[in-house]
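Lay summary

Proteins are chains of building blocks that fold into shapes. Our project writes down both the chain and a compact code for its shape. Here are two examples, one after the other.
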Amino acid sequence: MADISSLKQALSVSPDNLPLILMLGQAYLEEFQFEEARETFENALRIEPGNPVARTQIAQLLEVEGHSSEAILRLEQVNSEHPDFAPAWLLRAKFALLENDGQSARKFYDRAIEIDTSLVSEELLKRIRQAGGNQAAGKARSPKPQQTSESQASAFFDSEFEEDLDEDPFEDSDIEIEFEQNPDVDFKRVGGMEVVKEDIRMKILYPMENKELFEAYGKKAGGGVLLYGPPGCGKTLISRATAGEINAKFFNIGLHQILDMWIGKSEEKLHEIFEVARRHAPSVLFFDEVDALAADRKDMRSSAGRTLINQFLSELDSESAENDGVLVLGATNAPWHLDSAFLRPGRFDRLIFVPPPDAPAREEIIRIMAEGKPVAGLDPGALAKRAKDFSGADIKALFDQAVEASLGEAMKSGKIVPISQKQLIKSAKGVKPSTKKWFESARNYALYANQSGFYDEILEYLGINK
């Protein structure tokens, strides 16, 4: 696909070139520039009013904007006027799936594949079957297609052999996920956070070490743990350390790696991620800023957003998902923005407050930060007192400032200048604790929106008796 600037330049020479206009609209879609994409496809319809490509793409954009009824109506018109245009049937199948109408989704999907077998999606078909879209009696199976990226991903999950865990589990997928096999950090490399560590041990480490004992009590390894607290206090670090503690594969999942502009594709990606984690158990799935992915559905204007949340809930649900050996860790700075359904038992059933490090933890973090650096006369206890209310990220910032100051002197003298305790204390004065602003906001939620008692730990930390 040519870039947007090149396409616009070509169109300035040939403004009524319909293929170029459609390519430009597609390029805008891929860059999530929805308004520009809509305007471009409307322009295509001014040149060719019945163009099925432009009309189908506009229906796609309408669904993204939350205008589901209009989107379906437009697709029905495309299907009626262009019955052999397969992409419209496939999109209509995805729309039906959003409404949990598996039978209609299967009918539209089969029609699309009958026209164009290159559109086969094994993952989409699996989701249609899960929604009740079984193949109609007497209907011939569509021919086996060539392997597409999606069918390759399905073959990856269905294969009988075990993969080499050193290989990229997403090699045949378009998902770009950071993963680590046996991270080089464990709980010993995490200062403090003993309560958090023990909760995580109870979730996955102890059940793995004492499988028969835990099974006698009906407990399995895995589950969901939601870590919340001020930014920079080690939620990501403790998640990586958890995987290192149990020699598990660590999957670091970001929102941008799941969201997709195509209807139903985000749900497919999320399901694929969970399937890979289950296949490689024991594993740790870490969702950073999970509140963006698990926001309250009452605040969602788009049905696509609500469907993605429903998919996430389904993957987490211990009653329906085989998540034995998969620990799902979510990290958020704003747990009050999560949909309450995520906090139901069997999903994120452990809500763990990750506070700023206390004095002993700050000392340990300072020692870890000083490793490998030319530090002279370090007094971790004295520096920890100066770093009251500092997060782990704040402590790193003060070290970065001290390193830069010593590097400046070293550049002038041409030799290594040690980082002194005096320089570290001076740097500490220049760093403002980032946790205070968070507690200003969290305090209000803990006082006035805490009927369930989820945020009692915040009040306890602040010394407030409600």
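And here is the second example, written the same way.
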Amino acid sequence: MKYFLAVCLAMVTLSVNAQRLWADGFVGALNYQGDLQDKRFTFTQSHLSGGAGVTYDFSDHFGARLHLLFGALSADDKNGRNAARNLNFKTSMFEVQAALKYYIMPLNSHLLTPYVFAGLGVFHFNPYTYDTTNVKYFLRPLSTEGQGFLPGTKQYALTQFSIPAGLGVKLSLTDNLNVGLEMGLRKTFTDYIDDVSTTYVDEFLLLSERGPKAVELAYRGGELPGGGPYPAGGDLRGGARSLDWYYFTGLTVSFRIDAGASKAAGFDSKSFACPPKM
């Protein structure tokens, strides 16, 4: 008898677990805030991005998710307040995120429910630019602010932690399909997503340590008509007091995984009952 009850319990558990697991997809705009884009939120210079993942709902109000995000970030001084500096960058962006979700109203009993989320992420970036002859250069090896050769400086890591947090709303189309909108910020612990943070390094020191291309791409005001000379070492290049952020805004879709598997196997959690013992 006890083995029979254990099998029944296992069948119900498998059915319930299958109904709590969702496959997620999303597509939208990815953007950043930093030294080349100081607006707190804007769609200017944003890039198409997307990703996928899974969500497991522990209850009607709490869930956990694991998501992968792919996209790009970029900005150009020509579109900001510091046009005379004339810097620009672009980077691909890859993020892995684990987060907890709180549904303000349970989705199972409401057509529309808002939610909030927060968690921990790891992201990878690698800023680059193009020179006047359209040749691509990754900026980190150029040590444009003296990273790695000035006393007390070191190169920034291209893989960093972030704290993702945000909010969204889900619309239940069917028992097994939801669509929604989401906006999520990522607080980072680096100021070098755009390769700009502190001060200019002395022009001749940078030339001797990293070569003429590093000098050319550390300050590009000279490329502009009437542009000024390379700034003096120690002059402000960026704002190190404010770290870089990036954020995603977009559409989401979620499918219940194996929604029909339990019914096909006769395990429907809403109607399942153990057959009478023979």
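What can we say about the second shape? Residues 2-20 form the longest helix (19 residues).
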